[in-house]
Amino acid sequence: MSQKIKAVDFFCSGGGMTCGLTQAGIDVIAGIDNDATCEETYSKNNPNSKFILADVFTLKEKELAKRLGLKKNDKNLVLIGCSPCQYWSIIQTNKTKSQKSKNLLMEFKRFVDYFNPGYVLVENVPGILAKKEQSGLANFIKDLESKGYKVHFEIVNMNDYAVPQSRKRFSLIANRVSKKAIFPKPTKDKRPTVADFIGQNNGFKKVKVGFKDTTPFNHSVAGLTKKNLLRLRKTEKNGGSWLSWSNDKELKRKLYRGNGFIDNYGRMSWEKPAPTITTKFFSISNGRFAHPEEDRALSIREGATLQTFPKTYNFYSTSMTSIARMIGNAVPPEFAKKLGRTIIENHE
User: Fold this and answer.
1) Residue numbers annotated as active site
2) Where are the domains of the chain?
3) Residues near 44 by Cβ (< 8 Å), separated by ≥ 6?
4) What is the CATH code of the structural domain delimited by 198-307?
5) For a tag site, which of 100, 105, 222, 257 has the least CB within 10 Å?
6) Which residues pair with 10 in a beta bridge?
7) pLDDT at 103 over 80
8) Half-sphere exposure of residue 325: CA atoms within 13 angstroms, side-chain side
9) Residue from 104, 32, 35, 119 nearest 68 by CA
């Protein structure tokens, strides 16, 4: 097929999926999100893609078709739905805030039904498959197959696809261009680790807790309370945990529900993949997010690099929390690139 494949990235956030698909050679014509704080980051890093600030619950199919010049039944079109997914996460968090997000897959389905594109991509938390009836996933897949799509879905560990994280995600490709189910193959190379991506050898100078980087590189680090700094100083380098100071009467944690999580306050290991980079990766109390050696949490740029964003991909916001949300919610561009190449190979 000579026409270039084009894509629309629903729930695009800061543009991880758009970045990877673009690297693969797909023309991502637009990203859609209802979070205005993502617009500058998305637009400046993806200048050939239009950012559409819209709520998918109120966005109409005909309106989108008109704005982007989309046609129905276009085999060169990819629709991507990587909806925010905290509601279906297996992590025990308060679900009231994310209540509305539980129906996003069904809203995305409206656009799939209307446009009948050549390809559909979905990426989400593994919990969406574990609760496939409640989440609407079972119905979504059944509908795609009834329309003649060949659907492949599985729970993947991103580390098997050259991402330096142990990050398990649900991933789906539906294809009606050829008669086969398609999906990228895991890398044949050694699985990447933290040492392959961050540290002084990879261009990350040593910085102290609370460091503010005013350059676009954004090697900024969150502050720590005096007690948490003391805790980190006592935590064994390269993979240590809070068990290092669990018997210190000044530093030990009060008994609470989260005490079972050995990763909170832990350091990453150089020789292992990072844990899942979440939206709270800049905080040591939210997971194993302390630097392997330095007495601080990961910097903003380190989190982005472990998510495989290029070092030239700049994030725009005065809020560290807002930037970390964009990074943590992103589809790692390296995995997105592999999805894109799989689609292009199938198309050719």
Assistant:
1) 85
2) 6-187+332-347, 198-307
3) 314, 316
4) 3.90.120.10
5) 257
6) 32, 81
7) no
8) 17
9) 32
How many angstroms separate the CA atoms of 297 and 268, rounded?
A: 10
Quote the CA–CA distance of 325 and 34 in Å, as a whole number: 14
Q: What is the pLDDT of residues 23-76, one digit of tens each?
A: 999 999 999 999 999 999 999 999 999 999 999 999 999 999 999 999 999 999
User: Global pTM?
Assistant: 0.93
* Beta-carbon contacts of residue 204 (< 8 Å; ≥ 6 apart): 198, 219, 299, 301, 302, 305
CA distance 281 to 222: 10
Is 298 within 8 Å of 314 (Cβ atoms)?
A: no
Place of tokens 């979504």: 140
* CATH number of this structure's domain 6-187+332-347, picked from the four choices 3.40.50.150, 3.40.50.2000, 3.30.70.260, 3.10.690.10: 3.40.50.150
Q: Under a CB-based contact definition with an 8 Å cutoff, are residues 328 and 277 in contact?
A: yes
For residue 244, count other CB atoms closer than 10 A to its CB: 18
277, 306 Cβ separation under 8 angstroms:
yes
Q: Whose CA is closest to 72, among 81, 64, 84?
A: 64
